[in-house]
Design a protein that fits this description.
alpha/beta; 4-stranded parallel β-sheet; FAD/NAD(P)-binding domain; 30% helix; binds flavin-adenine dinucleotide
Length: 275
């Protein structure tokens, strides 16, 4: 990858959190010529999460980073639209994404952990200083500097960006009150697994052969790509879906007993889910 870093602005930026927001801010600040320090509480990078979608707006950010498009291309879902079906399996309509892609930019949908790892390694290769195992305990600001305390150490910069996620300490400081996340009442069960077995089954082969497919059934939604398939249930308000112990078997039972899996293709998909 060919990076051309502009000359240094002399501005020191501290970024708390190496999630997507923190890494994006770090890469953009570095590209502007600021010196960047990222403090992240996790001790090691792990491939965590499931599917995540970055629409055209964020896709355009990825695309302006040299080489990023190429790095993400092999791992992202590629389909031209969303096929909507009724719960009986009949086609309703196909929503095309070609216009959006051509006019607004590419979207990047794939495994959160895999995309995150690519961004993380990209930032490291640019020479950005990312320090893991650095939980930020405190933020401070004076008339001449801003900074944080992490691992009992003081870090000082010109700007501090709090990219510390849903339970952000930085947000509390900026807002002046604790804006606690509220449960929506919904739960999502997802599986991410090798789709080789689906490719062999005549009921599901069409999903994974000849490129990726993105299909939605009334009530049940899933999307696939060459090697994996993701099954998501967005109807989890029903008690049978409130499987908080995350036993996948109970989720399957819930689907069957509610007759929601009457479509053969979904039966096969659920049967082949690991767990
Ligand atoms: C492990 C994980 C898995 C996820 N899986 C999915 C998924 O499958 N699908 C999906 O759509 N979204 C997922 N998300 C959510 C999604 O990645 C983010 O919510 C969204 O991208 C917003 O990104 P963010 O950078 O604002 O926050 P986050 O991605 O939450 O990143 C915040 C980062 O800040 C760090 N941090 C927090 N507090 C401190 C502190 N005091 N000091 C130092 N570091 C701190 C956290 O460890 C974290 O790495 C996941 C998030 C995480 C953390």
């Amino acid at each position: 990858m060919d990076y051309t870093t502009p000359s240094s602005t002399g501005i020191h930026v501290i970024i708390v959190g190496a999630g997507f927001a923190g890494l994006t801010a770090a890469i953009e600040c570095h590209r502007k010529g600021h010196s960047v320090l990222v403090l992240e509480s996790f001790r090691e990078l792990k491939t965590l999460g499931d599917i995540i979608s970055f629409g055209s707006n964020s896709g355009r950010i990825f695309q302006r980073w040299p080489g990023m498009d190429k790095l993400l291309d092999p791992i992202i879902h590629k389909s031209d639209g969303l096929l909507l079906k009724t719960w009986l399996g009949e086609d309703l309509l196909e929503q095309s994404w070609i216009f959006e892609r051509q006019n607004y930019g590419r979207s990047f949908n794939g495994h959160r952990g895999e995309i995150h790892e690519i961004l993380f390694q990209y930032a490291l290769h640019m020479g950005i200083d990312i320090r893991l195992g650095h939980n930020v305990e405190e933020y401070f600001e004076t008339a001449i500097e801003a900074g944080v305390i992490s691992n009992s150490q003081k870090f000082v910069g010109d700007i501090v960006l709090a990219a510390d996620g849903v339970r952000s300490k930085g947000r509390t400081l900026v807002l002046g009150y604790d804006d606690k996340p509220k449960p929506s009442g919904y739960a999502v069960y997802r599986a991410w697994f090798d789709s080789t077995e689906l490719a062999k089954d005549p009921d599901t082969a069409w999903l994974v052969n000849n490129g990726d497919r993105h299909c939605a059934w009334l009530g049940l939604v899933y999307t696939s790509r060459f090697d994996y398939l993701i099954l998501s249930d967005f109807r989890s308000r029903h008690p049978l879906y409130c499987c908080l112990d995350k036993e996948w078997k109970r989720v399957q039972l819930g689907m069957y007993s509610q007759g929601q899996c009457s479509i053969q293709v979904l039966r096969v998909v659920v049967d082949k889910c690991p767990g």
